[in-house]
Amino acid sequence: MRLHVADHPLISHKLSVLRDKDTPQATFRELVDELVTLLAYEATRDVRTEPREVITPVAATIGTHMADPKPIVVPVLRAGLGMLGGMMKLLPTAEVGFLGLKRDEETLQAITYANRLPDDLSGRQCFVLDPMLATGGTLAATIDYLFERGAHDVTCICLIAAPEGIELVEKHVGDRADVTVVVAAVDERLNEKAYIVPGLGDAGDRLYGLT
Ligand SMILES: O=P(O)(O)OC[C@H]1O[C@H](OP(=O)(O)OP(=O)(O)O)[C@H](O)[C@@H]1O
Ligand SMILES: O=c1cc[nH]c(=O)[nH]1
Ligand SMILES: [Mg+2]
Questions:
Q1: Gap from CA of 32 to ligand 1 centroid (Å)
Q2: Domain for residue 17, yes or no?
Q3: What is the dihedral of CA 94, 113, 132, 15, to 10 degrees?
Q4: What is the pLDDT of residues 104-116, one digit of tens each?
Q5: For the chain, which has fewer Cβ within 10 Å, the N-terminal or C-terminal residue?
């Protein structure tokens, strides 16, 4: 697994405002959107392209176009849905598949309640969106779903990760080079309820309000 921790002052600034418990919900949503677009710039570094002729007003030249099949973006409901708009700004031609997973807050096991992915992901580059990588159970299950369907590679974009979650995903995928995790920050630890410390609380609740 490759891990990339984004190191940029704008990302750090926006993340600090996001963490603040007094940040209003509307601002929270806006910041998630902006942060994803910044992280997506790094996460799409290896997106497949092909040369294609383009005729400018001055001359013909060989340009670069995204290759087919186009990537597939997979927001993990609920909280990952808050990241979809920011991602699609950068990848407007990508397809979108949906996975709904909810962590059982007693057992900490991720339970799948929705799955709207193409059956065949052969050769597809997949971008998973989930703001919080806590125990890592949700992300490990998501990565499994995608590789079971033949995904070529999986890049996960998270806002905040706990060291425990990174370790679990690393152990889960072993040394395969086709899994990348891009995060804005790696925090200190998980607390006794498996929330990230300092983290930002429950991302789904802060985006959508329902508990
Ligand atoms: O690494 P883990 O320990 O598995 O936890 C991380 C998961 O927890 C949160 O979702 P949650 O289960 O709260 O669902 P929600 O998005 O509907 O709030 C978060 O968005 C991740 O999907
Ligand atoms: O800190 C955490 C851990 C899991 N899910 C969240 O939304 N936040
Ligand atoms: Mg939640």
A1: 15
A2: yes
A3: 60
A4: 989 999 999 999 9
A5: C
Q: Are 108 and 136 in contact (CB under 8 A)?
A: no
* Number of domains the chain is built from: 1
* ipTM over 0.90 threshold: yes
Active site residue 178: no
Atom number in ligand 1 closest to CA 76: 22
The answer to whether residue 57 sits within a structural domain is no
Question: Looking at the whole model, is its pTM more than 0.90?
Answer: yes
- Write out the residue range of the structural domain in which residue 197 sits: 2-49+66-208
Residue 55 placed within a domain: no
**pLDDT tens per residue across span 166-198:** 999 999 999 889 999 999 999 999 999 999 999
* Ligand 3 center–CA 74 separation, angstroms: 17
